[in-house]
Amino acid sequence: MIWLVASALLFSIGAYGALTRRTAILVFLSIELMLNAAALSLISFSKLSGSLDAQVVVLFIIAIAAAEVAVGLGLIVAIFRRRETTSVDELRQLRG
Amino acid sequence: MLTLYVLAGFATVLSLLAFVISREATRIVTVAGLVLAGLFCVVGWGQTVEAFGGLYRFDTLARGLTLVAILGGLWALLLGPAKKFEYPLLLLFAVTGMHIMASSPNLVVLLIALEVFSLPLYVLATWQRDEKGFEAGLKYFLLGALGAAIFLYGIALYFGATGSFTAGSSGSGPLYIAGLFLIMAAFAFKTAMVPFQWWSPDVYQGSPTVVTLFMATAVKAAAFAAMLRIFTPEGLEAWGVGMAVLIALSTLFGNLGALNQTEAKRLFAYSSIANAGYLGLGLLGPTGQATVPFYLLTYGLATGLIFAVLSMLSNQDVPLERLRGLWYRKPLLGGAMGLGILSVLGLPPLAGFWAKYLVFQEAARAGFYGLVVLALVTSAIGAYYYLKTFFLIFSKPTPVQEAEDREAEAALAQFGSSEAPGIPVAAAPMGLTQGLMAPAARMGAPALGLLLAAMGLLGLLSVLPGLGLRAFSAGLTPAVAALSITAPKSGSTLTAGSQALQGTGRPGESLELFDNGNLLGTVTVGPDGKWSFPLPASAQAPGAHTFEARQPGQTRGERVEVEFLRPSGPSFTGLQDGATVAATGFTLQGTAQPGQVLEVFEDGASLGRVTADANGQWSLNVPPPSGGTRVYEVRPEGAASGARISLVVPEAQAGAICSQSFALSNLQAGGTVSRPFRFGGVGSASSYTVLVRRGDRIIGRKEIPLSAACGWSYFSDPGPGEVTYEVRETGKLETEPPLATITLKVQ
Amino acid sequence: MLENLLLPLVIGLPLLGFAVLGLFGRRIGEPAAGWLASLLVLGSFCLGLVLLLQGGARWTLAEWLPGIPFSLNLDNLSGVMLMVVTGVGFLIHVWAIGYMHGDPGYSRFFSYFNLFIAAMLVLILGDSLPVVFIGWEGVGLASYLLIGFWYHERVNADSARKAFIVNRIGDLGFLLAMGLLWSMFGTLSISELVDKVEAGGYSFTTLTLAGFFLLIGAIGKSAQVPLMVWLPDAMAGPTPVSALIHAATMVTAGVYLLVRHAFILHGDGFLAGLIVAIGLLTAYYGALCSLGQWDIKRIVAYTTLSQLGFMFVAVGVGAYWVAIFHIVTHAFFKALMFMTSGSVIHALGGEQDVRQMGGMRKYLPATHLHGLVATFASGGLVPLAGFWSKDAILAYAFEFGPWLWVLMLGASVLAALYSIRWYVLVFWGEYRGKAHPHESPAVMLWPNHILMGGALGVGFIGLPYVIDYKNFIEPYLTKAIGDFPHEKLPVLTEWVLIAISAVVAVAALWWGFRFFQQKMPAWYERFQAAALQGFYADALYNTLLVNPAKGLAELLFGGDKGLLSGFAGLGSLMGGLGSLLARLETGALRFYLAGLLLALVLLLGWGVLR
Amino acid sequence: MIHLGLWLPLLAGLLLLILPGLGRTFAVASAVVSLVISCVLFAGYGGQGVAYASQIPFLPEAGVYYALGLDGAGLFLWVAVNLVVLLGVWIADVPVRFLAYALMMQTGLLGIFAAQDLIFFYFFFEATLIPALLMLWFYGGPERLRAIYIFALFTLVGSLPMLAAIFAVRFLGGADSFLYTDLAANPLTGQTAALAFLGFLVALAVKTPLFPLHAWLPSFHQQNHPSGLADAMGTLYKVGIFAFFKWAIPLMPEGFREWQGLLLFLAAFGAIYAAWVAFSAPDWKTLLAYAGVSHMGIGALGLFSGNTEGTVGALYLLGASMIYGSAMFLFVGLVYGRTGSLEINPVRGLAKHTPALYVLGMFLLMAMIGLPGLSGFPGELMALLGAYKVSPWLTFVAFLAVIAAAAYALTAFQKLFQESAQAQAVPDLNAREWGFAAVTVAVLLLMGLYPKLFTVYLEPLGKAIAALLGGAS
Asked: So what's the pLDDT on residue B425?
């Protein structure tokens, strides 16, 4: 049960981080944190229900996260190469 | 099943082969793979294939929406850049992911599918490699990752509440609700429903137009397929209001936001937000499984046409002004875009109208009338910007544009290539970007063919929407027919007779019927879902009845409350219908309820009122009628109809000698009478004069000659009120006492 | 009365003339067109006479509109009117053959003239109110077309339009009357209405209202105060038009309508008083205005107004047959008066100002004789036609109240004065103009001869009961109008009244004959200036009604455009709201993240706590 | 037959659009065939109920049927529409493609009157808009863009509440389908009916047009092609009265009763208001636009009185005004062809040069202001008789328009034809125009003198409405 609370807390911390960080990398990291929080809650539910399904799912999640990181970092590096910055606040061409 | 294999197989194998074979070959193989996968969707339409222990479920819904996704993919492929082999490959991966998403009821598979099609899209969004492209890509990616996290957290809570990863599991409690709402938020994000729409205008605008096309058509199809599995009508109680809020906000925000846009892609991004809202309406209703795919198909075709034309114009921003005069400069493009716009607007007779109508109807059937009204109001607002764009296309081009056209043509002749019509060559993107985005077949035969095919299909669906709808309904379990009693209506008043209970139910089910709680009998629902049960006389006894139909074993069912009236009609006795009677007058007799006041009519004219005696008998003298067939009717006081009898009155022989003394046959007592009415009697004078008085005022005189049957008769149709008639022999002074005085209260 | 297919033919003949002349008139050519039109009217007259002598006729087309038959009814009342319209109409047609000689619109004129006769016959013969209304508006149309016959002059076109519009006010009354009667009785057939009204059973107040609506219609058509303004202007039409439409027939249609519906009006004190008041006002207004005119036709037009006022008084006091009797005599002497004027105008080459006339008795001896008879008949000299009908009205007025008799006597004094003024100014004194007067051709003289005979003798069909106890016309008409018994005056009183009015007429004629030959005194000049302007009725209406209405139309037109801007404003409001909403898409990623998460929290919180 | 009659114009129009070389002759031939078909249908009508009914499942799952059928009113209006289209394509001086759009619009209009399924009614109601827009778009005046916006938005926006009400009618009323018979058997009741009726009211008020939703009409007419063909088609598109009669009132009698007072008021006020405004109209098209509003106000007043006479009058007036209104626009087109301007104000005195045109104009004008004996009168009279029973005062107000009509119509007419002639001679009617004039005048007279020909079929419908609404009120 405590793990559930922990995962919710972790999710919130991730959300907080995503809101307050300006660098794209850190924002992304915070979001990864939220993903892992969800994984944590899955495990605790698995424990509560006694079913192993959820634990298997977590393995998938790790793979998914890895794929996301690959694409995400590639994207951020490409942006950095072109703009010399990864601050998300400076990306405001598209609006309205 | 084969579809999955083809898509996944082609994607995997091509990833390896692409490094070896030529770019052109990659494209061709990709196209072949998509077409093949599409074919396997169509083969065996209506059948459901399950595999992997239920993780994969290839039913009509999956088939239809996979087709929409493949269509979008093909389109994006044929119109898209050809300089790099990754482009077709990424598209193929995305379509594979969408197919999986459309074909799985398992949340974890859905999550994986989501990532499989999202990750290639993030890359495709930045394909242009310019500032806007990167900005769009990063926004899409970061927000998308957040969406995935939310989805996953939702799955976790859902699992916690239901212990299952299967979509559509029933559950309850705050945990369940929270999980469901989180999942809903994730999908609302993917389909760009407010308030999770933030990314969509920016990404639509920043991405290359072909990619936008792909997003607008395919992504929605995949996401809604999954939503249809997760948000089933059975669970409407749990998620309905949340969805309703999203729909309301989406339709409002999308349509209002689009009003003052100046850039085409951004405008249609807002439009797609609004359309996501309309699509959401389809989820609420009982047959959304058929209507939402239908909407997606027509919307995909129409919006596909729009973005295809836009992508043929430019892969970057398309200010609305640039569309001016498109019809005159490129009639095919202008026409295609015009058609698409009108269809999205939902103008009859185009397919978009039927689609909109069907999803609105879903919401109406689920009882969300407020939402339907809001959706209609917002469509009305939407009509403004759609029409604005439409009319821009059909305006005359400005002289500047015409000059540009000539310039572009000259450039084409000189350099062998040019950007889309109307764009000065100098302004076209140069260098790397241009190289990356060089069109494969921007105006080539396949792209053109696709354009025409889409227009044709849209036209076909306009004329025969039933075709599409039936296709999407194939293989669906028939909607559960709710138990109901259709006749008699509740609260109605019936007269006893051959009344029957009628209603609907599940075909083949047997129902128990009750009258005021007493079992009447059982009835089996017919194969058409209807049942009927003739009521026995006991169930038609006068008074209030509550009829109830219950499913076996239930304690409550559908009820109707009706009231049976006493069969109270008065009737004639003595005379047979069609009998011949005396021309000199006769007596009508009959029965009625004791004490009942009756009124007797002759061909619609009243002969006066009678009251039935204690034995229920009544009689009335009829003054000599004119010859022919007369219809007599006796009605209860104030009723509109009653028992009728038609009698034949012989023509009287002329020249008879009349010797009867004066007599008045009917209305002797006066009283209340309907109009028109007739009174009369027999007599011997050659004519009588009737003096008509109202109060003290004499308002008329009428001379009545004696008829051949020695009768006299006065027919009157005065206005309401009290009237006095005095009958005298003609020629007698009015100061003499009359032969008869009749005072009537005319109604 | 028999169903008779010939009855529609009575209407059909002039209608045929309208169609034939309208389509092929130019090819038929000048005298032939006129003669064709005249003969068709004569045919109508003969046919009508035959049918009338057979005791009348009916013709019904069962269902014309749901519940409304198309029925025609030739009874004694409509028969008398038929005789007047076709008889006098025929004479005027013939006269017009000469008068319209050389006009470029010759055949068009006769086409319209025949249309008028046809419409008037529909009006008279109709036994169903909508059918009457067809004729009612039809004569309005013909009047419009004929007043504006020379429409290339603006003033003529204006006059025609004014006549039509003012008449429409009356038509509205007619329409409302139909609506009311329909809602009361469910029928619009006049013969059925008679029965229904007899049968009773309705509110008498409502019936009064129906009578009032009919009265409005009659006021419009018969140019009574306050809708009298169109008639003087209507003189813009050719003189035959003035004679036929605006003197002899159409303007009396209002009186005819009231008489036809005597069963509604009779015994209603309010309506009787109202009709008498209107008639009296009109009689005085017309007479006084006439005394101030210089235009020969306007003089006669105002005299017509005055005489119509007499007819209204007759209707008001319940002397329905007398009103019709006066229509008959008036048709003769007023047509004669108009055509005499026309002959004079014709003789002077189109001059209409009486100040440019005078002394015509020397130049136009035959016409002078016509004028003299017309003057005496109109002025009420014993024993000409005008005297007998006017005397009958006076007698009934005395029954109604001696005060009314006094007032009416005053009006007839004025009638004598304006008649003699017209006569003196035209025929006496020295010729004041410069043209060379010439007597009219035979085709114009003979109709006048016949009319003169009528003006002299037609009065004898309706002598007072003290002279001729069973005169011809009273029982004849009463059969159709309905018997509304009244106390006859004592023989002595009747004789005294006859004597007074005879003496007064002679005295007034004599005094007028003297007075109008002198130079006018100053008070008369002042009076004349006001009378010339019709006592400023036109100016009053323009200020009070016409101009405000036009102004309001402008205002409303502007307002209607504003309505559209109002709707457009709603659109802009939406657009503004949209822009505001679109500004939420700030482009800032972290704003988006925040928005997304905030939305999530709200949705979750609401969903879970709900 | 009914299907052929309905779709033939569309096919002909499309063919003409693709092959403009076929020319006007082809369009006229199509219109003649249409008219003949509708006359044959009319002649074969039994006099009761819905004839030529046919019903094919279209979206049976959703309760939508392709159901057609014609009752007395439908047949009457079919004949009217086909006649006007024939006159229009016969006379109007326009490019061939314009004729094609007119023919396409014809199908939409016929569909509106023939639809026996509410969704199909809506479908035709909206689809007719497209050719109307195209005509305005391709051949309109300089300010057409604004006019188009206004027209399209009024129509589209207005009809959406109707769609909502359509759903309510079926799903709250409990019918099994959108078929007229089903819906009429399950009318809405109570508060719902009032709300649903309001939805219909908004859409139909635009198309009647009723004050204040008539605001789109003047600019629509002002900006349309001066030949008058588009205006004539637009006049035919004023189907609000029919739709009230056919759908709104029978499906929601209680709703109608709820709004009856307001409706009567709007109709009466609109009648006098528009007639008054017309007096200030600067050009003929604006004048005719307002005149149309005024007439429809009177028609609507009759219909909303809810009794037999009123209903018959409203329908008759609708058909008659379709014909004389359209012919009037076409006539104005002829005037434009001669003078090159439609403004009222300068005095033109045309009659001197064009007596035949003058006579034609006189007939049309008199029909328009309701002269008895011409087609405008029977409808107006019946409407009056019906309305007076229900509301004498509003009837009085509405029929003040009779006076105003004479004022505005005659004033404008006088300036066009009368007074001093203009110097420049213009040709009178040519042979083709004579044909137009002869047919028009013949129809005006026929409808004015023998209304029974049509009213005999309208009367049962009026009685049905009256019975539905419970007698006089």
From this structure: 34
- B109 has a pLDDT exceeding 90: yes
- Domain B487-565 = CATH 1.10.3720.10: no
Give the model confidence (pLDDT) of C492-523 as tens digits: 888 999 999 999 999 999 999 999 888 888 88
Tell whether pTM > 0.95: no
pLDDT for residue C330:
93
Helix (H, G, I), strand (E, B) or coil at B618: strand
B676 touches chain C (CB under 8 A): no
In chain B, CATH 2.60.40.10 sits at 487-565, 571-746
Chain B residues whose CB is inside 8 A of the D163 CB are 357, 360, 376
Looking up tokens 């003394």 gives B661
- The mean per-residue pLDDT over the stretch D363-382 comes to 91
| Model confidence at C281: pLDDT above 90 | yes
pLDDT, one tens digit per residue, over C405-438 is: 999 999 999 999 999 999 999 998 888 888 888 8
Maximum Cα–Cα distance for chain B, whole Å? Answer: 131
pLDDT number for residue C54: 87
Say yes or no for a CB contact (<8 Å) between A95 and C590. Answer: no
Best of A46, A56, A57, A84 to substitute, by most chain B Cβ atoms within 10 angstroms, is A57
For residue C564, list chain D residues with Cβ-Cβ distance below 8 A. Answer: 150, 215-216, 219
From chain A, the residues in CB contact with C586 under 8 A are: 92, 95
How far is it, in rounded angstroms, from Cα C475 to Cα A61?
A: 116
d(CA D470, CA D41): 32
Is D215:C570 a contact under the CB 8 Å cutoff? no
Contact C180 D392 (CB under 8 A): yes
Of B177, B195, B746, the CB nearest to C607: B177
| Residue numbers in B near A42 (CB within 8 A) | 152, 155-156, 159
Output the pLDDT for position C162. 92
Write down all domains in chain A, each with its CATH number in brackets.
2-87 (1.10.287.3510)
pLDDT surpasses 70 at B476: no
DSSP string, C529-577: HHHHTGGGHHHHHIIIIIHHHHHHHHHHHHHHHHHHHHHHHHHHHHHHH
Q: Regarding the domain delimited by B571-746, which CATH topology (the fold level of the hierarchy) does it fall under?
A: Immunoglobulin-like (2.60.40)
Per-chain mean pLDDT for chain C? 89
Q: Which two tokens stand for residue B78?
A: 């044929």
ipTM exceeds 0.90, yes or no: no
Mean pLDDT of C249-268: 90
With beta carbons less than 8 A apart as the criterion, state whether B349 and D58 touch: no
A40 Cβ under 8 Å from any chain C Cβ: no
User: Inter-chain contact B148–A49, Cβ cutoff 8 Å?
Assistant: no
For the purposes of burial, counting CB atoms within 10 Å of the CB of C198, is it exposed (0-12), middle (13-18) or buried (19 or more)? middle
> pLDDT, tens digit, for every residue of B527-560?
667 788 888 777 777 778 888 887 766 666 777 8
- The beta-strand segments (E) located in B516-627 are 518-524, 530-534, 543-550, 558-565, 571-573, 586-591, 597-602, 605-611, 617-622
Which helix (H) or strand (E) is D41 found in, with range?
helix D23-43
Residue in D214, D273, D204 with CA at minimum distance from that of residue C566: D214
pLDDT tens by residue, D1-53: 889 999 999 999 999 988 888 888 999 999 999 999 999 999 988 877 888 88
| Structural domain spans, chain D | 2-468
Q: How many CB atoms lie within 10 A of CB C507?
A: 12
Between the CA atoms of C111, C114, C120 and C124, what dihedral angle is there, to the nearest 10 degrees? -150
- For residues B526 and B457, the answer to whether their CB atoms sit within 8 Å is no
Tokens 């609401």: give the residue.
C606
B261 touches chain C (CB under 8 A): yes
Please report, for chain C, the start and end positions of each structural domain, with discontinuous segments joined by +: 2-532, 542-609
